[in-house]
């Protein structure tokens, strides 16, 4: 038995997400019970006080989102978790965090919708809500893990990106990934990189809270209580943080929010390519569907079909560049997703008609099995 | 000996099948294998239908759901009806004959074991029927070692119930031995 | 500006957006006087507000200030306070913000008893959106959305706060500022959820719609119709009809949330483990 298998253990996806948060330095969680995300709250209710952190069950989903923004302003790395109906309710305050640039992580363990839908049925139906759920134009970062190991490691990454870019980061789990148990190796302390928000270097009297200090366009952030008294608002504002009605100021503010993410794309975009070198058919998949697609690749290859997969780990911003490069080489793209057509349209728009793009879209609470993908491969070859 | 096992455990909520699936997966990981456990259940935590799935393999596991089972255990008539056809031709079916009567699967090798009655009468409490069932599964297939299984069971069950669970496990091993010998 | 309280204001942000005759400024002055009297460190004090006329106050106040979303100030404030209990946390809210869209957060914050100081500016109307009725507009009052008179019944928000478990509840008005400053100050001293309803006047919308006269007339109404709890306790029922009772209405300390939470953390002394 080697060292890694000694540290290996069986863990549920939701629990791995909660443990990843603690590893990342999260010390505040506010949430509201909702299937199938509740285990995250239950684990953190037990674990956070053990490491000096705080857990609170708020009166509703809206309050949970508000509380993590408030907590983050005091310097605490903060998280909430929910599922479809709760994700809808959080949207307004999620937009607040985007505009006021408050780091936080929001986990959505996707279940079948719309409305109450299928509480225990898996789905990938919140992908577009993740992008556009809150009103107005705004950037967002959304990440989709495909294994229990990734539930842990990508939650750490989500906190890192959130602190680095001062933006809420969405962890888009699905019921399959959140509830399944599999082998995980918990990284040793120090093994994964931990990123903390940049703090101001100037004296409080010189602090301009939203003035970027470098090309990243991400302003340093002071915590409440440290002597840097400043104003945080959901109104569009200038570098001082105070609201303005000036079209120039409002436009500049919006532009910077987008530009800071555009400049960070190389740090944000994560994809995995599986046997794409010689592929004729490319599967584009994410979350639990990437597991089904991986099996389809293996079985198609066994039949002599040249099939590969682009796995989207980062979903928003969309990994357009990686996709475009592969679109130059393949003859067809298939997008299997557990919704009625959300990512497939983004793929179509990204490849601009260079190759045909087919969706396998299903929203019935079942994961799409490898057989259906294999049938589609036969069809398009 | 197969390199990869797709195992489905079907029954009613409250029979401990999800716990059973977790224990089996934990035993596999103790042996250095890969394992994935998943489940489906209704909104009720007692009664209603319950299904646990476990895949155990020496290789990395991609697709996490059982397609056609290498091994099916059913502990309720409803589960028998629902899952008995999704078994590989050379698969194994274990029926808890305490509850599953009149079931004649068309494929797979079938073993009828009086699991729940053994738990109730021989061990003393029906709540350990899932542990008896694990004894039957592992005794028959060797999907994990008996030592790893016992270790996984003792790590998971409530304090103070270790002896009863060991007894249940031994009863499971014994029961399948008798069934195989009688055949 | 009064020199003795100037340090508490971001004077460069003035003038404020409130209409002539609005009493929000009077209430804000009482808040900072109470903070001054309590000797709170500005660096360690956070003022949180929601959306509406009164909630714009945070922009003018020289503290750590957080101007949030409509109705949600208490939820943001709960996150601030629990994450760092060393901070003194105030919430400025209005009658629409607090009792309508924020009603759920209000009752649960009162029940939870976190050490928050809440000052509700009650002007009986939605001012910023131009004069719609609120859950605290009296029955019969006119508003742009109640052109034939309000057929709803208003909350007695202080009674609601008491019923929901607030440990300190008081009411004041913008005429008797000495009393208002005192009850806010006493609320700061209460370790728990402290709630102060401050009666404000909105001559531009509420006053004009309901023919209540000019700003001075509305302040005179406050003077003539408010009686202290001590006076009210001595009066027979018929003489109290139509009067608004002010002063400390309820004070019953109970375990404070962040203190109780710290006790759980203290059980795990020995530090961080992960």
TrEMBL record, chain B:
- Domain Pyruvate/ketoisovalerate oxidoreductase catalytic, by residue range, is 13-174
Q: Which residues form a coiled coil?
A: none
Q: Which UniProt keywords apply?
A: Oxidoreductase
Q: Which Pfam families match?
A: POR
Oxidoreductase keyword on record: yes
Q: In the UniProt record, does the keyword Oxidoreductase occur?
A: yes
Listed NCBIfam families: PorC_KorC (TIGR02175)
Q: Please identify the protein, giving its name as recorded.
A: 2-oxoacid:acceptor oxidoreductase family protein
UniProtKB/TrEMBL annotation, chain C:
Q: Name one Pfam family in it.
A: TPP_enzyme_C
Q: Which domain of life is it from?
A: Bacteria
* Gene3D superfamilies for the chain: 3.40.50.970
Cite the InterPro entries for this sequence.
2-oxoacid:Fd_oxidoreductase, THDP-binding, TPP_enzyme_TPP-bd
Q: Where is the Thiamine pyrophosphate enzyme TPP-binding domain?
A: 51-197
Keywords from the named record: Oxidoreductase
Known PANTHER family for this protein? 2-OXOGLUTARATE OXIDOREDUCTASE SUBUNIT KORB-RELATED, 2-OXOGLUTARATE SYNTHASE SUBUNIT KORB
Protein name according to UniProt: 2-oxoacid:ferredoxin oxidoreductase subunit beta
The organism encoding this protein is Heliobacterium chlorum
């Amino acid at each position: 038995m080697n060292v890694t298998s000694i540290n290996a253990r069986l863990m549920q996806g939701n629990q791995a997400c909660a443990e990843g948060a603690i590893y990342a330095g999260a010390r505040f969680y506010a949430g509201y019970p909702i299937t199938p995300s509740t285990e995250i709250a239950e684990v953190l209710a037990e674990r956070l006080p053990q490491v000096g952190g705080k857990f609170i069950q708020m009166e509703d989903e809206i309050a949970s989102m508000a509380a993590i923004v408030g907590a983050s302003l005091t310097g605490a790395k903060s998280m909430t978790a929910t599922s479809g109906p709760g994700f809808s309710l959080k949207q307004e305050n999620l937009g607040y965090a985007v505009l006021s640039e408050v780091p936080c992580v929001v986990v959505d363990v996707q279940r079948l919708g719309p409305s109450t839908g299928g509480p225990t049925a898996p789905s990938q139906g919140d992908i577009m809500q993740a992008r556009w759920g809150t009103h107005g134009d705004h950037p967002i970062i959304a990440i989709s893990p495909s294994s229990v190991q990734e539930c842990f490691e990508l939650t750490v990454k989500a906190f890192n990106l959130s602190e680095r870019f001062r933006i809420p980061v969405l962890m888009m789990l699905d019921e399959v990934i959140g509830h399944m148990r599999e082998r995980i190796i918990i990284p040793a302390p120090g093994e994964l990189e931990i990123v903390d928000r940049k703090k101001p270097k100037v004296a409080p009297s010189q602090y301009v809270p939203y003035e970027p200090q470098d090309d990243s366009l991400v302003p340093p952030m002071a915590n409440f209580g440290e002597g840097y008294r400043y104003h945080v608002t959901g109104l569009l504002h200038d570098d001082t943080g105070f609201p303005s009605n000036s079209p120039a100021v409002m436009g500049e503010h919006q532009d910077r929010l987008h530009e800071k993410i555009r400049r960070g794309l190389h740090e944000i975009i994560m994809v995995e390519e599986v046997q794409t070198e010689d592929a004729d058919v490319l599967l584009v998949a994410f979350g639990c569907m990437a597991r089904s697609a991986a099996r389809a690749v293996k079985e198609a290859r066994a039949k002599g079909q040249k099939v590969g997969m682009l796995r989207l780990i980062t979903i928003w911003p969309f990994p357009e560049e990686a996709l475009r490069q592969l679109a130059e080489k393949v003859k067809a793209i298939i997008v299997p997703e557990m919704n009625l057509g959300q990512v497939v349209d983004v793929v179509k728009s990204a490849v601009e008609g260079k190759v045909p793009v087919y969706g396998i879209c299903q929203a019935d609470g079942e994961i799409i099995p490898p057989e259906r993908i294999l049938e589609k491969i036969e069809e398009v070859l | 000996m197969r390199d990869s096992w797709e195992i489905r455990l079907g029954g009613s909520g409250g029979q401990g099948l999800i716990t059973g699936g977790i224990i089996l997966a934990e035993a596999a990981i103790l042996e250095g294998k890969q394992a994935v456990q998943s489940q489906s259940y209704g909104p009720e935590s007692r009664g209603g239908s319950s299904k646990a799935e476990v895949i155990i393999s020496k290789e990395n596991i991609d697709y996490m759901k059982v397609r056609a089972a290498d091994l099916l255990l059913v502990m309720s008539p409803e589960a028998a009806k629902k899952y008995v056809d999704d078994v590989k031709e050379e698969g194994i079916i274990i029926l808890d004959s305490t509850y599953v009567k009149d079931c004649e699967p068309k494929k797979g090798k079938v073993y009828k074991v009086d699991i729940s009655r053994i738990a109730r009468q021989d061990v003393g409490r029906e709540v350990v029927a899932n542990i008896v069932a694990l004894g039957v599964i592992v005794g028959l297939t060797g999907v994990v070692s008996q030592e790893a299984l016992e270790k996984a069971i003792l790590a998971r069950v409530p304090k103070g119930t270790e002896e009863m669970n060991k007894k249940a496990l031994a009863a499971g091993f014994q029961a399948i031995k008798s069934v195989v010998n009688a055949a | 500006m009064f020199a003795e309280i100037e340090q508490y204001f971001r004077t460069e942000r003035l003038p404020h957006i409130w209409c002539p005759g609005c009493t929000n400024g009077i209430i804000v002055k009482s808040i900072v006087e109470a903070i001054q009297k309590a000797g709170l460190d500005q660096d360690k004090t956070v003022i949180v507000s929601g959306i509406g006329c009164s909630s714009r106050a945070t922009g003018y106040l020289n503290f750590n200030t957080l101007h949030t979303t409509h109705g949600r100030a208490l939820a943001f404030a709960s996150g601030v306070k629990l994450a760092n209990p060393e901070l003194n946390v105030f919430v400025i809210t209005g009658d629409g913000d607090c009792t309508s869209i924020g009603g759920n957060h209000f009752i649960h914050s009162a029940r939870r008893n976190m050490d928050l100081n809440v000052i509700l500016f009650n002007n009986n109307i939605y001012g910023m959106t131009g004069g719609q009725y609120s859950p605290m507009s009296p029955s019969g009052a006119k508003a742009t959305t109640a052109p034939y008179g309000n057929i709803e019944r208003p909350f007695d928000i202080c009674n609601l706060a008491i019923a929901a478990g607030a440990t300190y509840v008081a009411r004041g008005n913008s005429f008797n500022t000495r009393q208002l400053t005192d009850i806010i100050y006493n609320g700061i001293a209460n370790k728990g959820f402290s709630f102060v309803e401050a009666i404000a006047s909105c001559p531009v919308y509420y006053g004009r719609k309901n023919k209540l006269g000019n700003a001075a007339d509305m302040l005179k109404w406050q003077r003539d119709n408010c009686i202290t709890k001590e006076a009210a306790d001595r009066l027979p029922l018929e003489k109290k009809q139509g009067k608004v009772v002010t002063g400390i209405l309820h004070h019953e300390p109970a375990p404070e949330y962040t203190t109780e939470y710290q006790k759980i953390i203290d059980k795990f002394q020995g530090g961080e483990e992960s």
